[in-house]
């Protein structure tokens, strides 16, 4: 198993390098340092001298890919591409272009509000989705199953914005049970995260229950389930003991891959509820045209997704011995 894990980690190294290079190329070619300077300085204050001063102050005055004025390795290292891309490999995101703030400190500070919302949604959502999916699968072919599927399709068809705005209006404006925006630290944060968490769970129920129900129904139709029934096992034991255990691979795929996004938070949820998390941090950077932050968050999201895929592969070995033996 250790060899399997090492092999998966080694596979990720060239992918991370490729993501770093591709991210930098996209940002620097689509949005050149001159374009960034114009957007941040403003239309009224644009002069060639102001652009050059801004580029020099922010480290964008070097050549983009090759520095022909240097010799040896400095031809490559003394470039914008290398000096802005290489630190990303060890997660040194540098400073923002607009406010000159330390991006690493901002990420460390903002990840906790994101986790305060995303972690309960993740854990409670898994429990709720699995419970309801196994319930409708247990009563398959009945009116409970039929109306459960209809409800899931309806919930999937409704926009997330409807749940957010409707929840804010009903529970915040009308019933005045929860604040509709803001955030606080410590135990006082609970009253600010309850409503986003409830809305987040509701928005995921439709697709989650429908997916897990499909997985359970596929397992129920297999030969080992029919054999278990033939041996006299109750339907409850067949479904909850044998069916759930053997359905873990597709369940783990959907669960583990979503773990990295816990650190990212929810872009919509944090923006609408004014929660100072990583999601709102990214939205604010896009609106402010701060491409150092945007580039850092895109790269961080890519790394977390790759980590999620590695965790998925490793988790397979825990539930399927055949993978471990291979």
Question: Would you kindly provide a written description of the structure presented here, covering whatever features stand out?
Answer:
The protein is mainly alpha-helical. The chain has 2 domains: 2-89, no CATH class; 112-325, MetI-like fold (Orthogonal Bundle). The chain is 75% helix and 0% strand. It is built from 17 helices and no strands. The protein has helices at 2-30, 33-41, 48-57, 74-77, 80-89, 103-138, 143-157, 160-174, 190-220, 223-230, 235-246, 248-257, 261-264, 267-272, 278-287, 291-319, 321-325. Helix 1 (2-30) runs antiparallel to helix 16. The chain starts with a helix and ends with a helix.
Layout of SSEs?
Blueprint lengths: L1 H29 L2 H9 L6 H10 L16 H4 L2 H10 L13 H36 L4 H15 L2 H15 L15 H31 L2 H8 L4 H12 L1 H10 L3 H4 L2 H6 L5 H10 L3 H29 L1 H5 L1
Task: Tell me briefly what this model is.
This protein has 326 residues and is mainly alpha-helical.
Summarize the amount of helix as a percent range: over 70%
Question: CATH first level of the largest domain: which class?
Answer: Mainly Alpha
Overall strand count = 0
Query: How far do the termini sit from each other?
Result: 9 Å
* H and E string: HHHHHHHHHHHHHHHHH
Calculate the mean pLDDT score and round it: 80
Report the C-alpha radius of gyration, rounded: 25 Å
Q: What CATH architecture of the largest domain do you see? A: Orthogonal Bundle
Any idea what the shape is?
A: flat
**Which strand-content bin applies to the residues?**
under 5%
What are the low-pLDDT stretches, counting only 5+ consecutive residues below 50? none
Structural class: mainly alpha
- Overall structural domain count: 2
- Provide the CATH topology of the largest domain: MetI-like fold
Largest sheet: none
Q: DSSP helix count? A: 17
């Amino acid at each position: 198993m250790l060899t399997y894990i090492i092999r998966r980690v080694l596979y990720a190294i060239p992918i991370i390098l490729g993501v770093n290079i591709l991210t930098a190329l996209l940002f620097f070619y689509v949005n050149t340092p001159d374009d960034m300077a114009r957007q941040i300085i403003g239309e009224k204050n644009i002069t060639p001298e102001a652009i050059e001063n801004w580029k020099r102050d922010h480290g964008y005055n070097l050549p983009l890919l090759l520095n022909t004025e240097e010799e040896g390795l400095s031809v490559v290292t003394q470039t914008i591409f290398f000096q802005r891309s290489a630190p990303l490999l060890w997660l040194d995101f540098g400073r923002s272009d607009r406010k000159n703030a330390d991006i690493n400190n901002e990420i460390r500070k903002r990840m906790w509000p994101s986790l305060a919302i995303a972690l309960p949604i993740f854990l409670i959502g898994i429990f709720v989705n699995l419970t309801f999916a196994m319930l409708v699968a247990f009563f398959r072919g009945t009116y409970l199953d039929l109306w459960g599927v209809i409800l899931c399709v309806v919930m999937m068809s409704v926009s997330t914005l409807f749940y957010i705005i409707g929840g804010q209006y009903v529970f915040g404006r009308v019933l005045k049970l929860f604040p509709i925006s803001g955030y606080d630290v410590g135990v006082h944060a609970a009253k600010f995260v309850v409503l986003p968490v409830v809305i987040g769970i509701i928005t995921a129920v439709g697709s989650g229950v429908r997916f897990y129900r499909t997985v359970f129904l596929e397992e129920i139709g297999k030969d080992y389930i029919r054999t278990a029934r033939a041996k006299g096992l109750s339907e409850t034991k067949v479904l909850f003991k044998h069916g759930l255990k053997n359905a873990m691979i597709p369940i783990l795929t959907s669960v583990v891959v979503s773990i990295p996004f816990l650190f990212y938070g929810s872009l919509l949820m944090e923006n609408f509820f004014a929660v100072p998390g990583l999601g709102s941090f990214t939205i604010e950077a896009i609106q402010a045209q701060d491409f150092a932050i945007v580039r850092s968050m895109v790269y961080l999201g890519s790394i977390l997704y790759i980590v999620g895929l590695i965790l998925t592969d490793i988790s397979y070995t825990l539930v399927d011995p055949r993978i471990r033996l291979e």
